[in-house]
Amino acid sequence: MRLIDAHCHLQDARFGASIDALIARSREAGVSWVVCCGTEERDWQDVLGLKERYPGFIVPSFGLHPWSLKERSRNWQEELERFLCMTPSGVGEIGLDHAEDIDHAEQEEVFLRQLMLAIKLQRPVSIHCRRAWDSLLAVLEKTGPLECGGIVHSYSGAPETISLLRKFGLSVSFSCSITRSGNKKGRKALLAAPMEGMLIETDSPDILPAGVEGLNEPANLVLVLQTAAELLDRSALELADTTAQNAERIFGRLMQR
Asked: Fewer beta carbons below 10 Å: N end or C end of the chain?
């Protein structure tokens, strides 16, 4: 069984010295590789370090998350491009979050600039979106379809929005939140997602699966897979292969072994 964690944050300081054991558990659980996403200037070097420390397991991605806008430097875009040009990598985590008290126009400007950088460098994107779906689509109208594609991670939008995102070359990724029986919206979206545009993720170290304590980690991707397979009435083996193929299509060319 091949499992690929399409979105996580293994650079998070909460993991500390446990990272070696975490990656060993992930591999034992069948996780082939992960997409590790930076969210702010100060963690991009940590993501790069993990990629160099665990070759063949970490696909790096660098981006400025909407929550990090206030801390960005004057030269953030030049610094982001420098990291992206250092190694095969994606652009993310980027996006919009209108649930937070962050200027919406500023979010959209920074998001658009990062999308344009992804287009320029021909890189896939990893997008965060919360309560900003109309704004997200409006920004995408400015870029047009993203040639190298990408994902909207931990998808929380309406089922009907998925087909609109597909027109821009985006797939949707489902996180451990679907293991929670109360997440009816997420489960409904899962059932509406086309198989060719579906990925799975953990978003480690956050969004723990139902019944799990501590920090989330890629080994828990098995629980996402099992829940999704049950909801979709498909075999776990078939769904693992499908979502792995989708991840390889989007991020696979960034893999260095």
From this structure: C
Answer CATH for 3-254 from 3.20.20.140, 3.40.50.1820, 3.40.47.10, 3.40.50.360 = 3.20.20.140
DSSP of 42-65? HHHHHHHHHHHHSTTTEEEEE---
| Cross-strand bridge partners of residue 8 | 36
As beta bridge partners, residue 96 has 129
Distance of CA 155 to the CA centre of its chain: 10
Would you call 32 helix, strand, or coil by DSSP?
strand
DSSP state letter for 7: E
**Is the peptide bond prior to 205 cis by the omega test (within 30 degrees of 0)?**
yes
CA distance 151 to 65: 15
221 dihedral zone (left: phi>0; alpha: psi -120 to 50; beta): alpha
Query: What's the CA gap between 168 and 76, in Å, rounded?
Result: 26
CA distance 205 to 10: 7
Whether the full predicted model's pTM is greater than 0.85, yes or no, is yes
For residue 117, CA distances in Å to 55, 65, 85, 165 come to 25, 15, 11, 19
Q: Residue 106: how many CB atoms within 10 A of its CB?
A: 12
Q: Distance between CA 90 and CA 36 in Å, rounded? A: 9
Alpha-carbon distance 162 to 158, whole Å?
A: 7
Q: Where are the domains of the chain?
A: 3-254
**Residue 92, helix vs strand vs coil:** strand
d(CA 61, CA 245): 19
pLDDT by residue (tens digit) across 138-177? 999 999 999 999 999 999 999 999 999 999 999 999 999 9
